[in-house]
Amino acid sequence: MGDVGKVIVFDDKAGLVSFVTRKWQGICAESLDKRGCMTAALSGGNTPVDIYRAFAQCDLPWENIRIFQVDERFVPKDGRDSNYRMIRETLLDPLSMPKENIHVVDTSKPSPDDAAKAYEQELAGFFRLQPGEFPRFDIIMLGLGEDGHTASLFPGSPLPDDTNHLAQAVMLDSERHDRITLTVQVINHARHIIFLIQGAHKALALKKVVEEKDTTLPAARINPVDGELLFVAYSEAADLLTENTYTRGEP
Ligand code: 6PG
């Protein structure tokens, strides 16, 4: 299933975007060949914007690709801070993706907990899960927060230890919004997990995750059961890494 914990660093945006896009295309080909469908869970935030726009330019059998969310802020789906809005604008709308191929967190539910429960039912139904089973996404795209969070799994939260849920509500604050997130268990069952990291302010978190394995940081709890784990970073985010921790991406 590929590398676990490999770090690839790029000096230029074009090189990084091209690499990640080729990974997406390769995983799509592998998934369709083996299963006739690719399931992908996408994170929000700013880093993936250019990546998702590049994905939308790919000539792929999008009718066989299912898009899910890694996490969502509990805001209206057309809100400024909505992850769905960003994914829709960068990927789904340009592709005119059929609604039946899109599985999002329903933030119109009365509460984050209701939204999390509804998303769990959506996952269980689509992946035809028996109780105790976890969905196995073909690819999950993750970001890294300066504090070491990923998805909406934040330091100090008991969630990373949760083995009984597929999705959970995360009560935060008005600035970060309450959230709904996939659990670590679900993420770790993916076939391919790709972290995208940009910004010098992420350098310490990246070092703690990939070198120090500091599991107080939720991102360090990401470790595929049987899959590939890649960290794809812009050079400024890798500034604190020791030379032998990473390889330089091909331009
Ligand atoms: C979110 C994301 C979150 C994100 C990181 C990095 O809802 O914000 O899912 O986990 O990936 O915070 O965000 P940036 O890419 O904006 O730095």
Report on this model:
The protein is an alpha/beta fold. It is built from six helices and eleven strands. The chain is 29% helix and 20% strand. It is globular, with a radius of gyration of 17 Å.
Give structural attributes.
eight-stranded parallel β-sheet, 251 residues, binds 6-phosphogluconic acid, Rossmann fold, 6 helices, alpha/beta
CATH top level label: Alpha Beta
CATH architecture: 3-Layer(aba) Sandwich
Q: Strand count, sense and closure of the main sheet?
A: 8 strands, parallel
List the domain count as a whole number: 1
Structural class: alpha/beta
How many distinct beta strands?
A: 11
Kindly report the average pLDDT value. 96
Shape descriptor? globular
Instruction: Work out the strand percent.
Output: 15-25%
Distance between the termini: 24 Å
Q: How many H/I helices?
A: 6
Please specify the SSE layout and strand pairing.
Layout: E1 4-10, H1 13-35, E2 38-42, H2 49-56, E3 65-69, E4 71-73, H3 83-95, E5 102-103, H4 112-126, E6 139-143, E7 167-170, E8 179-182, H5 184-188, E9 192-197, H6 203-210, E10 228-234, E11 247-248
Parallel strand pairs: 1-10, 1-11, 2-3, 2-6, 3-5, 6-9, 9-10
Antiparallel strand pairs: 4-8, 7-8
Helix pairs in contact: 1-2, 2-3
Bound molecules: 6-phosphogluconic acid.
Describe the structure in brief.
The chain has helices at residues 13-35, 49-56, 83-95, 112-126, 184-188, 203-210; strands spanning 4-10, 38-42, 65-69, 71-73, 102-103, 139-143, 167-170, 179-182, 192-197, 228-234, 247-248.
